Amino acid sequence: MMGWHFAEAGRVHLVWVALAVVALLAVLEVRSRDALARFLSPVMQRRLAAQASGARVATRLALVLGALLFGVLGLMRPQARGVTETVIAGRATADIVFVLDVSKSMLADDTAPNRLARAKAEIAQVAERLARHRVGLVVFAGRAVPVCPLTPDHSFFNMVLGGVDPGSVSTGGTRIGEAVSVAVRSFPAGEGAKLIVLITDGEDHESYPLEAAKAAAAVGAKIVAIGLGSEEGTPLVVADPQTGVRTPITYDGQAVISRLDADTLRQMASATEGAYVPAGTSALDLDAIVDTHVQPMVRAGADASVRTIPAERYPWMVLGALVCLLASLWIGSDAARRSP
Hints:
Number of helices: 10
Oligomer: single chain
Helix content: 40-55%
Order of helices and strands: EHHHEEHEEHHEHEEEEEEEHEHEH
Distance between the termini: 45 Å
Strand content: 15-25%
Largest sheet: 6 strands, mixed
């Protein structure tokens, strides 16, 4: 041990605790023998009681003391002088917040069965592929609501996602900037990959989305903006699930037109060095989007740094403690078998 030093040398005083424990065991052993001697003669003791010899008792107590002393040495963290080892400082994990538009325009059935149902199904599939990472969910329309905080529990996330519908947000509209701001506030402070996956089919209603994107960039979060619908505008039609009858959505007697603000989404993604994906009115393929955009960002920003630490030698102390403990147990059981 000349080439070792102890990182927690102050714990050497635990040796006194080990000595006190063994001394207590020795006192209890003597008292039990005295109590037995008051009731039985030496001849009857040998016939009726399984007792180890004094030498065996002393050996067993010495082994128990050895196990405790090895444990104390392990707690003192012995380290090899001048020897280092490389370890992974953290697991490659990321925080990913899905920001989902749940305004009534997401009920349009240009993507079967409708935009919202399709987006929810795709998000659930993507969450399965992000099993090592924490995921969260923010829904928005005329205001933003964080419905699932960042969590590694993907079962809980999927349960919350399944209950999302346009009724999750009482106010109509599309406030993209507010939703992104809520997502940014859900990220913990410090390093690590932070990603916002924004899915919307509308244009923002005066919630300052570019300022929100800059705030996201300030905390190291990237935005992958996925735009559903058409930039030219599409009249929204909803099909009745019972009859299949398609009915235009109207407001004040006028047909509601869903118009995608692609320029704003593109600028938001650019401000965070993220990506803009124009999904249009085709089926949303989030799986491909994850492969192309999400996974590279997660791998690039995940906290998986490597650091060098002194070489720890406490496993040898643990091994010594186990050997002593097992030997003391073997001596005790062997003494019981040998006794008549």
